[in-house]
Amino acid sequence: MPLVALISGEGTNLQAIIEVALSGRIPARIEAVISDRRGAPGLERARWRGLETRVLTAAAFGTREEYDAALARLIDGFSPRLIVLAGFMRLLSPNFIAHFRGRILNIHPSLLPQYRGLDTHSRVLEAGERIHGASVHFVTEGMDEGPLVMQAEVPVLDGDDPVTLARRVLACEHVIYPRVIGWFAQGRLEMKDGDAWLDGKRLDQPVILSKT
Asked: Which of 45, 115, 159, 196 counts the highest number of beta carbons within 10 A?
């Protein structure tokens, strides 16, 4: 299954996807890695493994919609069945999402629908939560609101700070994101009627990876 990955930063989730794809553990092929930032370290991770990379910055575009239209054309040139957001830090416009509806996955560092948006680790600690985690979901027009597919639960430990908590959550992200991409590549996962479906059954609740 051909896919395109969108990144903005370090690309650690991208690295996890690259490893499982190139090893054959999931039936997926990364056609290109596209970044909105020229200096994104994730680009070097991709180039080191011989993957095609592209950079499309927003500076030359007057509006988000113009940028997203150009991004969609760039992606279409690689004919992917799936677009994976791997730390892509731009909000996507409704037209972009409609163009690729049901074919965009994202990973978010919280147990959605809790703690949408940024700074999730700090917010979880400030709220005194005892369980944190990560979620893989299909992308829809609402920020971090698409149908949930899989979550990993991570205990909040005494003495945790945002850095230590983020490190453990990220380790779980590297497990669940490739797994969900593999389900999609195998034809087991789809978005239908506004819901996520796995093995022909609607997911009323996300699949949960046990606490680590």
From this structure: 196
Q: What percent of the chain has pLDDT over 70?
A: 99
Q: Considering the domain boundaries, does residue 182 fall inside one? A: no
**In degrees rounded to 5, what are phi and psi of residue 14?**
-55, -45
Q: Is residue 30 part of a domain?
A: yes
Q: Quick one: pLDDT band at residue 50, thresholds 50, 70, 90? A: very high
Residue 132: active-site member: no
Ordered DSSP codes for 166-185: HHHHHHHHHHHHHHHHHHHH
Mean pLDDT of 19-34: 97
The span from the CA of 91 to the CA of 146, in Å, is 13
Does the global pTM surpass 0.90? yes
148-155, strands of its sheet edge to edge: 53-55, 29-35, 2-7, 82-85, 104-108, 131-138, 148-155, 207-209
Which residue type is seen at 156? Answer: V
Six-digit token string for 156: 């909040």
How many structural domains compose the chain?
A: 1
- Does residue 85 belong to any structural domain of this protein? yes
* Residue 26 belongs to a domain: yes
